[in-house]
Amino acid sequence: LSESGVPQLVQPMIWDYAADIDVVGKVQLIEKYRRCGFSKVWFASAFKGATGVNQSLTLIGHHLRNQLEWLQVASRSPADVLEGIALTGWQRYDHFSVLCELLPVGIPSLAVCLQALKNGGYSEKIKENVENLLGMPNLEIDTFMR
Questions:
Q1: Record's superkingdom (predicted)?
Q2: In the predicted model, is pLDDT for residue 145 greater than 70?
């Protein structure tokens, strides 16, 4: 791979939508990419649509934990290796599947995830900020919102 010249042409993207990412494994994967000559990598997380083909509501807590795990991977990686995070929001698993988690029900999760990534973590203050931005009096993280 190093001799092919590919590492000078592309940047790999590491995808994982789990709430319990193998942080150490991801850091080791980044180190392997570096040894092959890739100077930058991307991470791909999700704010909705990655928890089940028939899922209709977004469980914010799952996606928030996914962002926080990626932040741990970033903090344990060399400072100059991360090019960015692609925050995805899947709406179907393939072209033959029904739509899942339509955008309106995912907007609170999008707001929470963006704020967590922007601020490098999540706190009660960030939760209050999202509630104010969205005009929601009680943002529910670990249950399905009504």
A1: Eukaryota
A2: no
